[in-house]
Amino acid sequence: MLAALNAQCTIPFDLAAEYPLRCRILRKSAQHHYLFLTFHHCVVDGWTANLLVDELSRDYQAYEEHWHYDNGQAFFRYLEDPFLAVANVDDSMAFWRDELDGAPEKHALEYDIAITAAGKTQNIVRTSLTNELEPALAQLAKHNGTTLFTLLHSAFALLIARESATDRVVIGSPIANRNEPTLNDAVGSFVNTIAHQFIITGDDSFTALLQKNANKFARAFKHQGLPFSYLVEQLKPTRGKFHPIFQIMFVCQHRKSNELNLGGAQVNPLPRSYAPPKFDLVLEVISGAEGIQLEWQYNAKLFTPERINGLAQAYALLLQQIACDPSQAVDHYSLAPMADNRQLRQLSVGQAMPACLRQPLSDRLLRAAHQHGDRPALFEGDQVWHYDRLLRHAGLVAHWLNAHTAPRRAHRHRSSTRRSSSYCGARRDPRRTRLLAVGRRITGCPRSGHYANIGLRLGCEQSGSPSRPLSADNPRSGSGGAVFSPCHRRSNLPTRRSGSTRLCHLYIGDDRHAKRRGDGTRRRHQYLADHESTV
């Protein structure tokens, strides 16, 4: 039955040859039937869906009781004038142009690469707010003079910003666009789409963020009738394989408690099914008699169900912390459960870090080479590179790279694999040559969806260049005379084609504590305690 329901949602409409709605009745027995109603979004919005349910119930009862009900026809002035709800088009256009000034063209959420065929069959994850959390959040919103919708919207924007390691996110939202009382009972799609840019400052408290967003929504109210298609036409954003202006949406709906009433017939609703969304991610908050339900609709070609489940869990954890302490700085909220944090501390030694682990990684590698030169350090295919051999041949590897690759291309190799993987490999993009693989197993996955990023950068550098030890305050500097040293950008590690010493530079990092630069590279801003366990 669910397969039949999903099939109804995936059949496209031919608006030139059929009505923009379908009604299918599937008979299971003489007393048991299934009713499928499918609507095209151009004629039915969430408001209209509730009206149609009421109208269908009244018509069914009128047929049973042999009385006539005149539903009438509304005059859709909105169809003739899409700017009907706009007081001043120029003022509204100026407002939205200012609102989206400096906004990123595309969100920074990383897509999942390895998605199985089974994972592509699902495109929705359902969760709900607990009975204790919902009234606490409602009271917090009321105390700050705003609505629960604004609070949930702000928390969702904060979640996306934290997961994207950025301070600017653009999230779209549909609005009913029924400002005139005469449209309250009109059947049709009056819905419009608006897009807000959220600028998240890590030092601000959530209370400050909530007040800022509440003021933003209040200013946008009188401009929300400007058609989104007209806004896109005027702004002329960069067009690509993604939705213009925003690709992530937040939806808030109120589901009426009175479902379909067919007289003496017993009616049980089926789980809603959706066609593949045209956005990358949609969070729909549904308020009803049973509480607040959350539906995470996503593009199954871009995200795995495990990734979306992780986002849903992080959102629930974030809301719990907000309810407990809304005055806390937004960067201090944890998005990982306490059990995962404890596991991560155990893997990385934790706060009680021995003094030896505070030494630069390069010094530790040199000491390991002198003390355990016969132990395996790296693997190249089937060959094992021990520490002593690796240090002897580091210059040769760098020389080979300089001789066989473009001189101006950055020698930075990066491979992202899950922490549950047995090893991480590095590949050279120009020739797709497999170079090295880290020999130590990476075990323990604090939370699915996060990755341990290990890269190699090989180049030439004079041995006498001054440098400082690696530390939390100086995460991008290397140690003088060391064979290995951390690096992040080519500008921080100039390569030369002359010089007697060839150096091999190793970079490790964790994207969970990284901020994206404008040029696409990443910069760590929190130091990992134990490099060895990470590698």
Account of the 3D structure:
The chain has 535 residues and is α+β, with helices and mostly antiparallel strands. It has two domains: 195 residues, Chloramphenicol Acetyltransferase (2-Layer Sandwich), CATH 3.30.559.30; 185 residues, no CATH class. 30% of the residues lie in helices and 21% in strands. It has 13 helices and 17 strands. The strands form six sheets. It has a four-stranded mixed sheet with strand order 3-8-7-6, with helices on one face. The chain has a four-stranded antiparallel sheet with strand order 10-9-13-12. Strands 11-14-15 form a three-stranded antiparallel sheet, covered by helices on one side. Helix 5 crosses helix 9, helix 6 packs across helix 7 and helix 6 crosses helix 9. The longest helix is centred in the N-terminal third of the chain and has 20 residues. This is Linear gramicidin synthase subunit D. InterPro entries: CAT-like_dom_sf, Condensation_dom. One of its GO terms (molecular function) is catalytic activity.
- Tell me about the biggest sheet? 4 strands, mixed
End-to-end gap: 49 Å
- Global Rg: 29 Å
H/E element string? HEEHHHEHHEEHHEEEHHHEEHEEEEEEEH
Overall 3D shape: globular
> Overall pLDDT, averaged?
70
Protein name: Linear gramicidin synthase subunit D
Domain Condensation: 5-344
InterPro entries: CAT-like_dom_sf, Condensation_dom
Biased composition (Basic residues): 408-417
